[in-house]
Protein: Alpha-amylase
Organism: Citrobacter meridianamericanus
Amino acid sequence: MPKMEKNRHAWWKEAVIYQVYPKSFYDSNNDGIGDIQGIIAKLPYLQELGITMIWVSPFYQSPMADNGYDIADYYAVNPDFGDMQDVENLIACAKEHGIQVMIDLVINHTSDEHPWFTQALAQPQSKYRDYYIFKPAINDAPPNNWRSIFGGSAWEKVAGEACYYLHTFHRKQPDLNWENPALREEIYAMITWWLEKGIAGFRVDAITFIKKDQDYGSLPADGIDGLVSIKWKSRNRPGIEVFLNELKERTFQRFGCVTVGEAPGVPLADYGQFIGPQGYFDMIFDFHAADIDVENGSEWFRRRDWTVKEFKQALFASQQAFIASGWGTTFIENHDQPRALSKLIRDPVFQNETGAKALAAMYFFMHGTPFIYQGQELGMKNFNRTRIEQFDDISSIDNYHRALTEGFTSAQALEFINQRSRDNSRTPFPWAKTINGGFNSGAQPWLEFTHRDFEINAEEQRHRSDSVFHFYQRLIQLRNLEYPEVLIYGNFSPLETHSDDIVAYARHTDNQRLISITNMSNTPLSYVIPVGEVLLNNYDSIDSNLKPYQTIIIKECVTNEQV
Ligand code: GLC
Ligand code: CA
């Protein structure tokens, strides 16, 4: 790839994207559920933080089995969140605040309550039958031994018929049949409809699952349930390129919108197909570093005793793959991940503001478009639930039961779930130290708060200059206003360190060099700090050693030979 092409400027490369989980952001009408009007009300806060785009998790009509990732109508808004007029107002108001709106595109599956699916069941002869994947039973059993991502067989029996339908995720999320051109046309029309509304683009959900191996064959079991993860037969499988190219050509490309594919299971060597000038998407999310603590992102009881060295290798390998192919994303949290502070910092003493800032400066200036997940900018942490009944997330409940089946005690199972539950990041946002943390004016929220003390809250941090909030604000200013050429478009080089526990890299152009150095451990470590201007430091001073979880951003004094 010629260097010029790689360094091409683009508006979405300059974005800083903030993920809003609408159910938990701000409940404007005090019914316990966050809503679109609530996002509108908080646009000034987001503008103050400095972000340039929001990615809003699904707000479509949905029975909410998977909190909106189970869509019953792509053209309607779930009444809990508001209506279409609210969404249009959000797009317009956000624009006035200098913020673009990206929405979630969930097209691997729908809800089982989508009219296509209900008609497919009610009238097996209708065209909708072929919008989904139905297969005959084999000896009264499912067609094969695939396990769904949320546990149990990936096949659900159709009542009154000797057949099953496929669901990669929950049984209330039947997979769409991408082999059917008529289904694909419906999807393209829907995407076009949304783009005409003026959204900036899409985060494309679970998109590497749309192509299934057409033999629908079983594989050797990988768990004591006799099943095998569906991913080996349905994730990034040969033939997916035909669908992804067509999707891009028929929709995204015509509008020049921005796209971010959720792309687990894509080997680094294949990134060139997914991103870059010829790629299916502008950027993808890479999960190698995010899932460092578990053997497999969806099986939380297979925990790994990971090292910072491995974490760093995963981060940098993804970076190199992004850079070689095009553009990437950089993130440490989202609505499927626990809080980074609890996951990446294992010493509770440093699960504090110092630690939160260390993680922030460590990931934010890597090559790619940075994402911030709501509450991350406050240094929010995981909760500690004591009973499985306190969880809402379907995958938490499934993982709990799978852990028991695999022989763990209920206390161990609960521990795994506390560490990994997706509910950790989905708790209502703490706006202030007032009733219900200012999430609403007193109604019981749909999900219990992380902590009822609301010690961590946005209002307090906005008014305190050394807060995590202000630290993020400063990171955004440095990247977008003060050093865009080097921090957005500059080269990226990992730096050698004596200690494996230091993550250090440089961003550099012909005449500037900025360095990010982070001690990812709870002990002081030696590092020769380069001479230069300290732009950011999460401690008051710099010694000969890096203090525990110290992070420093330095503008190096460069001579021409050095660059
Ligand atoms: C993606 C979403 C996740 C959802 C799943 C099924 O991984 O991020 O929240 O449960 O797809 O749609
Ligand atoms: Ca509400």
Observations:
- DSSP finds 17 helices and 24 strands in the chain.
- Residues 17-110+182-215+258-471 form a domain with the TIM Barrel fold (CATH 3.20.20.80).
- The two ends are 22 Å apart (CA to CA).
